[in-house]
Amino acid sequence: MLSLHIVALLIAGAQAAVLTLQSPRFTVTSSTGAQLRSEPISLARPASIPVTLEKDDVLKVTFQVIEKGASKGVQPHQTFLRFYDKKSGEEGIQPIRVTNGGKAKFELNMAKPPLSLPPTSDAPLQVTLLIGSPLHSPLSVALFDLVVPASQPAPVHPDEASFHPLPEIHHTFRPEQKLPPKPISAIFSVLVLSPWVVLLGLWAQTAPRVPHLLSPSILPFIGTLGAFQGLLVWYWADLKLGQVLTYGAVLGLVTIFTGKQALSKIGDQRVGRK
Amino acid sequence: MAPKSSSPAASNVVHSLWKAYSDQTSDRLKFIDAFLVFLMLSGVAQFLYCILITDYPFNAFLAGFSSNVGQFVLTASLRSQVNPENKNEFKEVSPERAFADFALGSIVLHFFVYNFLG
User: Fold this and answer.
1) What is the ipTM of this complex?
2) Keyword Thylakoid, does the record have it (chain A) (predicted)?
């Protein structure tokens, strides 16, 4: 069924009547109504002189679509004018209304140009008439070249400025901090270390007697406290956090025992003395 | 040690205060007091350096200064707890317990200080 249909279409295409235009004509009038140019259009070759429209000029194109060899007008399904700019590659398609009798009239008023007109470049627009009809072979007629006034520049989008590469970002860094000059460092080193002299001097006067410091019950506690300080210095110099926490936990257990022993011994001595 | 004062009365007061401190304070408390003075002087010196010259190794300043301040607080609380005159205020805190607290607090403080040293 389908193939039969296609065959029927093919036969129809083979036998399709050819469309042609009767008395195609264009007219250019100025805004005051004066006729500037009026010529019939040759279907064989486009007009040698481009049609030039000034601002406010009106272009009128009239024709009648007929079957070749008959005088009866035909209303095709699709009729378009194509404005093609060869240089920029832009094109615009303008549909044309054709009456039942095949008569068509197209008016291009440059005071109010249609949206389908492509933006101008310095090349003229090639105007082509395209006619499509299922009962006839398609028709494409190059009508003329059209020179229109320059279109206005495309409006600038308000956000257009945001869509450009920004200037390169240059990071600024705080200048490298410097150590103060050596003499000042030396003076303040002495100043910061001088309290040790005060401390040792005062301790020399007031050092309390520690008769039991080296007794076997107290010495381990002092030793483990010293070991803790040594561990922390070692941590500063070399160790990682996990290591120092592990060693510190072990050392802490030892310190708890030694400390409990030493402090309870001291406490007993203090209470017994009273 | 007593500062010289222009007024004889003020000088007298300071002198008697100093004398009372020397006579009535035990050597153990003086020992602790000497340490407190040392911490204060050391902290002041470091702070002066930070303000006047530079705070460039800021972590080192933080470590040094905070160790002074922290150690001062720990030592001051140790002193107030072992002072026999404060016995009634710290009834359940024996001097041994106070020293154990001091040792533990110092170890924790030193751990953080060494972290800051960098």
Assistant:
1) 0.81
2) no
